[in-house]
């Protein structure tokens, strides 16, 4: 009775020490996200948001749609991301398996001989055994059984680790969606750049024709002694300069085509595209919605949010390491020195059942370090989330401003091109009537060419802004 009482007192002291030492956890610095964002991008906007449109509805060019569709199936970077998603999914299964019981089957055989001059060997030698039933020497050993082990998830450490893996898996899904928005935007921008280069090459060809006609006129005037050889050489040099520009444009076309081919995961080949003049493409109105919709539409924001949730769960996992862990092990099986005895139960049957309660007592430095590390990563994730939201808002504001300024700039460029086209005809007529010299004609033609190039560039920037605002609002992945 006295021994039992002492045993209970000893167990009570042990459990008290366990819980006193394990329940003390260090204090952490807490950091929460900044939920205050502007209510509107501008005073005139409503909740209508074009980011909710599917990319097949947002873009109308069938050639562009075919390129995007091919890229979504063959792009290597996207396929690599799919494997990242698969890895994250397998991690969930691994985490889930950790808080379920482990069951192993065991079968084995062996042989053993005890040394004579050992306690066990001497005991067997002096044991009085009936004749015919001596222990075989050496002693065979045959085993067949099952062994189970289970860490009881008292503090939800293992389940929180599994839930953290789920959040990470969902974050990789959002990472894939974000990559899709980038891929769609990059292909669309490259496609419109290709249309712009085609248009500039066409402008060069038209300008070469105009300059060649002017060169013929100057040669005739030189024969009539109305101009000198210098004028002929100047016009000839201008034609050659314009022709040389063609090869620069052609090289840019090749590089842009290959850039698109790379995004499509295929080797260089011509890109099928529209023959429509990029100037004739109409720009649609922009419907940006309200800033709060970015939290739902932008995959990078949702990814940052899920990663933050995973970091919070990791803190709980690290905190649970301060508490005692309960491990239960059990085994049942058959064991005998002769295979024929294995089926003779209960003599050959054996079993065991044990429970271990383990708590960190002295060296807790590593546990504290992991705990502080988890907290630092959680604070880092908070800053990352705030930075992602701020960046998204800035991107939308910049693109909205760019769309507005490009529209105004394009209108003025159109008027400039029209004025310079008219000035070419005026300069040619004045030159024919000897009221203007050849330099005025050359400068007018050069200014007109540059203004046409700038008009095309402005139109390309308009199309890129249309693509970029769609991406900035979170469109393109759904």
Question: How does this model look, in words?
Answer:
It is a single chain. With 478 residues, this protein is an alpha+beta fold. It has a domain at 33-97 and 171-319 and 362-472: Outer membrane efflux proteins (OEP). Helix content is 63%, strand content 10%. It has 11 helices and 4 strands; from the N terminus they run ααααβαβααααββαα. The chain has helices at residues 2-22, 55-58, 62-74, 76-98, 119-126, 157-223, 229-263, 294-297, 299-320, 365-432, 438-472; strands at 102-112, 139-152, 325-336, 349-358. The chain has a 4-stranded antiparallel beta sheet with strand order 1-2-3-4, with no helix packed on it. α6 (157-223) runs antiparallel to α7 and α9 packs antiparallel against α10 (365-432). The longest helix is centred in the last third of the chain and has 68 residues, at 365-432. The model has no long low-confidence stretch (mean pLDDT 85).
